[in-house]
Amino acid sequence: MSRKNSGKSKILLWVLSTIAVLMIAAVLAYSLWEQPPEIAEEEPVAETPVLPEETVAPTPEPMPEGTAFDSGRQDGVYTILLAGVDLMSGSTDTILVGKLDTVRHTMNFVSIPRDMLINVDWEVRKINSVYIGSKNAGGTGIDSLSIHIRRTVGFVPDCYAILDINTFINVIDELGGVDYDVPFEMEYDYWDVNPGERTRIYLAPGYQHLDGLHAMAVVRNRYGYITGDFGRMEVQQDFMRSCIEQFINAGTIPHAGAIAEILAENLDTDLSAANIAWFMRQALLCGTENIHFSSMPADDCELMGYSYALPKIYEWIDMINEQLNPYEDPIGYYSLNVVYWDGSSYKGTVGLDGDWYYQ
Predict the structure, then answer these.
(1) Structural contact between residues 154 and 335, judged by C-beta atoms closer than 8 angstroms
(2) pLDDT of amino acid 4
(3) What is the sign, positive or negative, of the torsion defined by CA atoms of 295, 301, 304, 307?
């Protein structure tokens, strides 16, 4: 080999080595930047049961002295509350509680029906109204929503993220769009992208590439479901599952840093951009077979002219403990504060607030 060629080889080797070092440094810097959310030292406490004297204790029997919150946490487990806000009404029409297990590399998400009846003495008793109700009364929104999520699942999630429509659109566009099998033809007028202005939506059924606007149109569509809002929740879950599968199979999330920044700057959240980046990497570590979506088992009912969803109480408690509970001990009947139908009448796990509603 000539001195000239040898010199070129050394230069090429030096360039490649420099690039490799820079890539390693970038990966290390990113891994040092991202970080898990902090878990509050003070553990949430279940509400004290207040039961009318005539109420008969249900089976299974109430938990013995103490609650799940007296026990330790499962190692490496984080919980999160996710909600999507309707820009026109301000209601949280999509609500999910998630559990990430960084030891077993699993993620579980459970949808809470937006029409779930909450145990309050109000005229409209839907869980999707508490966030905007708090905002309108000068609160933060999440203050009230957290209370009712605690009553619903038995604990306060470690962190939360409230997403609006335009942020969802921007994130999907930043990802470069997603592929999805639209279940049926969707055509309707949408008013949330630019409030007060009509956006005409049309989507043919079938597998196709969706930009942010049309992805939003799929998950927000309320028409054409035989099972009503439960069908809509199933499509939302299927869409999220498809997104996660695409990026896990690719082994990367495009523009992860930019997406983390978009979310941190535009969400109502207690997560930093570094926390969000950490959650995204954890999703990649889980694998598609270990990310699960479910919906609260519920019954439909109509009260005072409004339609509601009521948890099937014992199925719901089982689902909480199997998929969401971050504690070592199980969450029991009296750790919740929910209304349900027992086959003959309405019951509350800690009594009925405003029982005139059920007469």
Answers:
(1) yes
(2) 52
(3) positive
Query: pLDDT tens across 201-243, in order?
Result: 888 999 999 998 898 888 877 777 677 677 778 888 888 888 8
Q: 52 burial class (0-12, 13-18, 19+ CB within 10 angstroms)? A: exposed
Alpha-carbon span 199 to 196, nearest angstrom: 10
- Report the predicted TM-score, pTM, of the whole model to 2 decimal places: 0.78
Tokens representing 355 are 């029982």
Cis peptide before 60 (omega within 30 of 0): yes
Given a cut of 50, is residue 22 above it in pLDDT?
no
Residue 81: name the closest of 92, 96, 93 by CA.
96
What the block records as the tokens of 324 is 């969401």
Alpha helices (H) along the chain: 3-33, 130-136, 142-153, 165-174, 212-220, 229-250, 256-266, 273-286, 313-319
State the Cα–Cα distance between residues 26 and 44, nearest whole angstrom: 39
- Pull the structure tokens for residue 15: 């360039």
Q: What is the mean pLDDT of residues 344-359?
A: 94
Q: Report the relative pairing of strands 106-112 and 291-295 from DSSP bridges.
A: parallel
| 7 exposure class (CB count in 10 Å sphere: 0-12, 13-18, 19+) | exposed
Tell me which residue has tokens 């003495």.
Answer: 121
Could you tell me how many residues make up the chain? 359
Find which of 121-125, 230-234, 287-291 is predicted with most confidence, using mean pLDDT. Answer: 121-125
**In this predicted model, what pLDDT tens digit does every residue of 152-161 receive, in sequence order?**
999 999 999 9
Cβ atoms within 10 Å of 256's Cβ, excluding its own: 19
3-class DSSP state for residue 137?
coil
